[in-house]
Amino acid sequence: MNRRLSKTLPLALLVLGASSTSAALTPPETKMAATVDAEYERTVGLLQKLVDQNSGSMNLEGVETVSRMMRAELEPLGFKVTWMPMTATKRAGHLVATKTGKAGTKRLLLIAHLDTVFEKDSPFQAFKRLTKAGMDEAEGPGAGDDKGGMVTILAALRAMKAAGTLKDANIEIHMTGDEEDSGDPISIARADLIAAGKRSDAALDFEGLVREDGKDMGSIARRSSNSWTLTATGKSGHSSGIFSAAAGDGAIYEISRIITRFRSDLPEPNLTFNVGLIAGGQEATLDADGVRAAAKGKTNIIPGIAIARGDFRTLSQEQTERVKSKMSSIVAAHAPLTSATITFEQGGYPAMAPTPGNKALLDRLNAINTDMGLPEMPVLDPLKRGAGDISFVANDVDSIAGLGPYSRGDHTPGETVDLLSIKTQAKRAAIMMSRLSREKR
To answer: 288, 315, 344 — which closes off a domain?
Structure first.
């Protein structure tokens, strides 16, 4: 059943709404908070175990090993755990865990991912705890993104079980094995997740918390990620004829014209666009993965071909289609004796647009913050958050992101997680899931 509350509204309008209020923590909620505190070292110990097992997206065996570690934690909590192999997309697979609770109450979808950007050949492989007065941190591959998110889910679920609120909750968990390097085709790679979104009433994403000026921020929107390839051709010949009626402008000037027009004509709110790779000359080619280019030419030859690849990011599907149309129009206005084509790759990440339903979930979270004596979480500017798996379900279900721990240096050697933030995030999540799971669908 689709529980999307209403259509997308401008982000500025959503920021204006005041948070709802509620009573102070109930005895079960107090029990949840105490359980998270009491099991803190257990949570950190599991995080170390997960981090020390490499699960780069292309380490298929390592990703599946991490899934088995999670299975061992989830099954004792009453979840039915299924491993979904993704042989068709040349990736390891996804872990899906389900628990049926009280009939007629809201169904919750929890999202995280098993893989990291650090492959087996990365020199950054081990968990290292960094503790000093007033601080408890750890560095390690995926310590924040997203193994910190996975242990936050487990800490919250264990707290719910201890307080007696887990038994009636209807929860489905999807931990993808290729979030950092998604399999192709994406229609297969995310089919199970998309289907889960359609049968859920709220989606909670456990990628990392964002902080600004020391404040925890609420993520109710994420932008899309779309890739494109541009190919320009021209009439090759001796360079002395460049720009003449017989020779034209050549491929490199044509691709330069297009990219310059992108820079001048495309800008609009919530859009970014980038040229990540370019090559041109008498010959130019891309490798099969589209991440390496080779070119050959001479200074006295008008280049016959030029190739560029890049991406653009938007806040809604409508904006995506509008930008594609603009880019195609710019490409079509060819310089003399040149031609150009642009292709948009299938399988990009869609946008998670800001909606009143998403904002309502943040309002619920802020009511919990009030009850916990924590500051309100303002709405995060979506330009400060990349694409993520939750975007695949956001068109079908009210969604909120950033429920994992705070970390810094993600995707780089030295990635460091604030271990104490796992406590706070697990408490927020346990209370929020318990409250939502009592509500009628």
So the answer is: 344
- The answer on 387 and 312 residing in a single domain is no
What confidence category does residue 414 fall into, taking pLDDT thresholds of 50, 70 and 90?
very high
- Verify that 231 and 212 share a domain, yes or no: no
List residues bridging with 171 in a β-sheet: 99, 108
State the CB neighbour count (10 A cutoff) for residue 103.
Answer: 8
Q: Across all residues in the chain, what is the average pLDDT? A: 94
Residue 173 has pLDDT above 80, yes or no: yes
Q: Based on the domain organization, do 89 and 174 belong to the same domain?
A: yes
3-state SS of 362-430 is HHHHHHHHHHHCCCCCCECCHHHCCCCHHHHCCCCCCEEECCCCEEECCCCCCCEEEHHHHHHHHHHHH
Domain residues for the domain of 251 are 226-344
pTM of the complete model: 0.88
